[in-house]
Amino acid sequence: LSMKNYMKSLSEIEPKIEQVKKLVESGDKSDIKHNANGGNSILLVCPPEEENLYIEASRKILSENVFEMIDINRLLIGFIGQHKEELLEKFNLLQSSVHQLFKSPPEEEEVDFFKTIIENIDKTFRAGKVPFLYGVGSLYGTGIDNIQIIENERIMQAPLPLVILYPARDTKDKLMFLNSRPASKYRCMIIN
After folding, report:
1. For residues 47 and 54, what is the distance between their CA atoms, to the nearest angstrom?
2. Rounded distance, CA 1 to CA 15, Å?
3. Which segments of the chain does DSSP mark as H helices, in order?
4. Strand, helix or coil for residue 184
């Protein structure tokens, strides 16, 4: 981006992040729940190619006392590093169901990446902060969809909302995750 386009982009991005900040800091969960079909999440939609600008602006605008930034990319790399042997073993067993490497069937109790994400979000809620997920593009192909996180009981019942920086295009009738896959707008308030 040229400096002129960078400044133009930031001037368009910052009001969206300010809107998220005001929604959260107002403490009026009913507005979020109403606009999110009973959900408890805010989806801050950004063009995939501008995700880094949104992250930069979010770090600048959102208070560390209120928001906890959670990088899903970093979380995934840490998870793989921590469970490398188990994942290799599972991969060899589940070659036709690779998506189960990161999200086990609900009846199974084993550690998986989905549960790791939910635990990190829940830990943030227990600390009295609003989780702000970014880098969610790394979920593509893992079998973990945004809607599964948003509709998780711990997120739905939490005292604070979940905010997700979501790299997608809004084509008016649907969101296209990473410009390539239809995504759900259900159970979340959309800001774009």
Report:
1. 9
2. 20
3. 3-26, 29-35, 51-61, 72-82, 84-93, 113-126, 146-150, 153-156
4. coil
**Residue 33 contacts residue 42 (beta carbons within 8 Å):** no
Contacts of 57 (CB under 8 A, 6+ apart): 10, 13, 14, 17
- DSSP per residue over 158-175, as a string? -SS-EEEEEEEEE-SS-E
Q: How far is CA 43 from CA 101, 151, 158, 185, in A?
A: 26, 13, 16, 8
**Rounded Cα distance, 172 and 127, in Å:** 37
Looking up tokens 């070659």, which residue turns up? 95
CA distance 90 to 97: 10
Q: What is the pLDDT of residues 32-57, one digit of tens each?
A: 887 777 889 999 999 999 999 999 99
Span 56-80, pLDDT tens digits: 999 999 999 999 999 999 999 999 9
- Location of structure tokens 């800001």: 191
- Give one word for 182, left, alpha or beta, with left for phi > 0 and alpha for psi -120 to 50: beta
Cα torsion 130, 135, 141, 146: sign: positive
